[in-house]
From TrEMBL:
This is Pyruvate kinase. Residues 432-771 form the Pyruvate kinase barrel domain. Residues 804-904 form the Pyruvate kinase C-terminal domain. The keyword 4Fe-4S does not apply. It comes from Plasmopara halstedii (Downy mildew of sunflower). Signal peptide: none annotated. The keyword Isomerase does not apply.
Length: 920
């Protein structure tokens, strides 16, 4: 199987269960932790245990000395042959980011530049893909084949490998970043041994560390070539692979090609480069005069990027491979001239899911999961290792080459048939994803609010950019006067929540002169000033903005957007307290329009004075959530929480157990995206506010950032709301566009806890129809989520606490036994929120005695809070099941899983009780 084309998998489509996906990620983490400990203790190569077998540049490859019988980490096969162990150490020029860019890109879909080290390769299963926060992260199951037929003249069959590959960055406690790359053999059902090949095993782990201007590399590889004859052909291949992988010219990114070309050009003075430029008698790489016979070899000795001449010495010394335009991988021996930098774009990167990498990594794992089989008939430990395995710290090599075997997953159809799709009894009653609807003039009346709640409104949003206090108070009273639907609690204990959306700190223009709109014309210039004298005197030539540090923040070439991005200006000069801008499009502008400075870091307070007054009013009236606008960093959230706590002390002194409103951080600018991890940690939830975010960043980036936010919130178990323009056309039309329906549905399929309506329900012509339409789309998408194809998306890290372990087991039990309902008895809501993190496929009825807790649980996907009649006593399990049956959620013969969680004390922790019952 030789050639340079795009390879597809030689196996049928392989499906793994969600449990298997989780165990594979656990395996990667175990590998990383075990090898990191060994690497950090590495001080140098012990030549008594290692023998140098090849060295090139500053990279050396060593082999374990096979006569070292006393080495405690020796692993044997059949008790008489050691496994071949290779150690590759050395340094190379470059940076960690450059190396990891090449490693991760080749590992995540770009054909490796060292493709001739294997004859064919394919990706079998993708487990984890890179994201904006972890651009170098990736986990996949892959297959590759080593072609040894030429050297063995047919006496030795080709060796192939099925292995897990992982890349990423590990941050050490010292703050230093360490790149890693892992490859480790696994056994996967369906990836059977191919005719004419022998399945071999490998385990490689590589670390990259920045040391001054160089990149230190440490790689340990273990092979199981199975015979002396094979070792003669396979091991040299791996030696070549290890060394070529870490050459700085072997990065898969074309950026590396450019960097290499620039490095070469810097060796020579500009005068010398000009003198030799275009001369056919000089090598474009070393600038030495070529020999007399160069014309005979010109066709072969040519840079394929700039077509310059290359001497024979440079042709042999410099070897690179780049993907060509024709979706082939072109192997050339050539160097790069300075001109290559301009032409290299004509050779773009070729992406394909089947392309893979052969970069080093190694592994270890331990698990008690029944789907993982650690038995391997090939491997037997030496007596030394058997004794060591009983100690508290087992040597890494004991578990390094154990092959993981996963149980087969029954094949499933991608989608159920129409007749089967609606057999689920909850499909017509329950929607797992919640609806947040903005209430405004078009929907604030009691009758209209009652219709909205009947159609599925769970959380009412009040936008304090427009609402007055008396309007907001009337909306809250009307909501709490609405009766419940689906008997989700008694009418007097209506559990619809209130979300208080702050106006937030903002930059605005001043007023225009005489109150008449001014016209900014394309091609002209305008002065933007912070001088208060122009605050009410704006003209087409000069107007005021409220950000006093404007001239310190904006530089020449930066963009300034006015009126929600309708008008684009570019700064052409900066003066004291003002900037001069070029106008890109003709548009009229009125009083106090919004100003955006995309990509710039602005110094604005977390709360304006209006925000403080509004929040004080909101806390006084017992709001449930605060949507904090324009959050840029974690300190903004901390400042808001501190102010809210002060308001609670001021208004709720007589209620010592009062629960403060949860803070939902709105991500609306690039700085918020860049600091997303710290914001997420400090917040109770996230709102992906796509409207303002789409002004600050390119529109196509909103898609990437939305996916990232949803994934990260799902991973840590915090709720996320996807908002803005979800059914925008329904402000004026009774039916949505097809694209809007897909937008809502895809947000649900991504894992959003809530989807939000803004103008559609606040001021549109069809507020009830908007909520009803969104609810219908949610139910349809919820049905799709029941399919294993989609369930496999929700893979989470191992539980971080005993409570999460118990809760995740209960959710798994409910999913697998197709329970009709999952009941959670909770006082504080803690256990219920943990249940929501693991995305149950069945609705969750949460019994609590606290109205505020119940309302705040509404934001989580799949949770339906219930407050019983007697709020002074938590219901028993039997009472909860009886109550659910009376409410129509259960009937005789249904199966239900019950979780009861309560905090015993600070010392004893929490008590989690799990039970399964059949309804009588």
């Amino acid at each position: 199987m030789t050639g340079w084309g795009v390879w597809t998998s030689p196996f049928p489509k392989i499906l793994l269960s969600s449990t298997d996906h989780g165990k594979l990620q656990e395996l990667v983490q175990t590998i990383l932790d075990a090898n990191l400990k060994r690497y950090l203790n590495f001080t140098g190569v012990d030549l008594n245990s290692w023998k140098l077998i090849k060295g090139k540049d500053d990279m050396q490859v060593y082999s374990n000395r096979r006569d070292q019988r006393q080495w405690p980490l020796t692993v044997r096969v059949d008790d008489d042959r050691e496994l071949q162990t290779l150690l590759c150490v050395g340094s190379s020029p470059g940076t960690l980011n450059e190396m990891m860019d090449g490693v991760s890109k080749s590992a995540n879909g770009v054909k490796d530049l060292n493709i001739n080290d294997s004859s064919s390769a394919a990706e079998l299963v993708r487990i984890k893909a890179p994201n904006p926060l972890e651009p170098f992260a990736g986990v996949a199951i892959k297959w590759m084949e080593l072609d040894v037929r030429r050297r063995s003249m047919g006496m030795v069959k080709n060796r192939d490998f099925v292995y897990i590959e992982a890349t990423g960055i590990k941050n050490l406690p010292s703050g230093e970043s360490l790149g890693y790359h892992i490859m480790h053999s696994v056994g996967i059902p369906g990836a059977t041994i191919l005719p004419g090949r022998v399945r071999s095993e490998l385990s490689i782990c590589t670390f990259f560390r920045q040391v001054n201007q160089s990149l230190f590399t440490h790689s340990l590889a273990i092979l199981e070539p199975m015979s002396e004859r094979v070792r003669q052909f396979v091991v040299p291949r791996f030696i070549k692979m290890l060394q070529s992988t870490f050459r700085p010219t072997s990065e898969s990114s074309m950026e590396k090609v450019k960097s290499f070309a620039r490095t070469l050009s810097q060796r020579h003075s500009e005068q010398n480069a000009q003198r030799l430029s275009g001369s056919d008698h000089y090598c474009v790489t070393c600038f030495k005069r070529r020999g007399r016979m160069h014309k005979l070899a010109r066709r072969q000795n040519t840079c394929i990027v700039c077509s310059g001449s290359i001497c024979s010495a440079c042709k042999i010394e410099k070897k690179l491979k780049v993907p060509s335009v024709g979706a082939k991988v072109t192997t050339k021996k050539y160097s790069f001239s300075e001109d290559s930098d301009n032409d290299s774009e004509s050779y773009p990167q070729i992406h394909h899911w089947a392309w893979t990498t052969k970069r080093p990594s190694w592994s270890t794992s331990k698990s008690s999961d029944p789907t993982v089989d650690f038995t391997s008939p090939k491997l037997n430990l030496s007596p030394t290792l058997k004794a060591a395995s009983t100690s508290s710290v087992a040597p890494i090599f004991i578990i390094m080459l154990r092959r993981l075997t996963f149980r087969s997953v029954p094949s499933v159809r991608s989608f159920a048939s129409a007749s089967e799709l609606y057999k689920n009894p909850r499909s017509s009653k329950f929607s797992m994803t919640k609806i947040v609807a903005t209430v405004g003039p078009a929907s604030e009346q009691l009758e209209m609010l009652q219709n909205l709640t009947d159609e599925g409104l769970r959380i009412m949003r009040i936008n304090f950019s427009h609402a007055e206090y008396d309007e907001a108070l009337q909306r809250i009273k009307n909501l709490r006067a609405c009766r419940g639907v689906h008997a989700e609690g008694m009418a007097k204990f209506n559990l619809r929540a209130v979300l208080h959306d702050t106006k937030g700190p903002e930059i605005r223009t001043g007023k225009v002169r005489d109150g008449k709109k001014i016209k900014l014309e394309k091609g002209k210039s305008v002065v933007v000033t912070t001088d208060p004298a122009f605050e009410n005197q704006g003209t087409a030539d000069k107007f005021f903005v409220s950000y006093q540090k404007l001239s310190e923040t904006v530089k020449v070439g930066d963009t300034v957007l006015l009126s929600d991005g309708l008008i684009r200006l570019t700064c052409t000069s900066v003066g004291k307290g003002e900037i001069t801008c070029h106008i890109h499009n003709t548009e009229e502008i009125g009083n106090r329009k919004g100003v955006n400075l995309p990509g710039l870091v602005v110094e604005l307070p977390a709360l304006s004075e209006k925000d403080k007054r509004d929040l004080d009013w909101g806390v006084k009236h017992d709001i449930d959530f605060i949507a904090a606008s324009f959050i840029r960093k974690a300190s903004d959230v901390i400042e808001i929480r501190r102010f809210v706590d002060e308001c609670v002390k001021r208004h709720w002194t007589s209620h010592p157990n009062y629960i403060a409103p949860k803070i939902i951080s709105k991500i609306e600018n690039l700085e918020g995206v860049q600091n997303f991890e710290e914001i997420l940690e400090a917040s109770d939830g996230i709102m992906c506010a796509r409207g303002d975010l789409g002004v600050e960043v390119p529109a196509q980036k909103v898609l990437t950032y939305q996916k990232m936010m949803v994934d990260r919130c799902n991973a840590v178990g915090k709720p996320i709301i996807v908002a803005t323009q979800m059914l925008e056309s329904m402000q004026n039309n009774p039916r949505p566009t097809r694209a809007e329906v897909s937008d809502v549905g895809n947000a649900v399929l991504d894992g959003a806890d809530c989807v939000m309506l803004s103008g559609e329900s606040a001021q549109g012509k069809y507020p009830v129809e908007s909520v009803a339409t969104m609810n219908t789309v949610i139910k349809e998408a919820d049905e799709l989520l029941l399919n294993p194809t989609y369930q496999a998306k929700f893979q989470f890290d191992s539980p971080t606490s005993d409570v999460e372990s118990a809760v995740s087991s209960a959710v798994k039990t409910a999913n697998e036994m197709h329970a009709q309902l999952l009941i959670v008895l909770t006082r504080t809501g803690y256990t219920a929120r943990k249940v929501a993190k693991y995305k149950p496929t069945v609705p969750v009825m949460c019994f609590t005695t606290d109205l505020k807790v119940g309302r705040q649980l509404q934001i989580h996907r799949g949770l339906y809070p219930v407050v019983p009649d007697n709020v002074n006593r938590a219901p028993t399990t039997a009472e909860a099941i009886s109550h659910a049956k009376k409410m129509g959620w259960l009937s005789s013969g249904d199966r239900v899983v019950v979780i009861s969680g309560d905090k015993l004390s600070d010392d004893l922790g929490r008590e989690i009780l799990i039970g399964v019952a059949d309804v009588q």
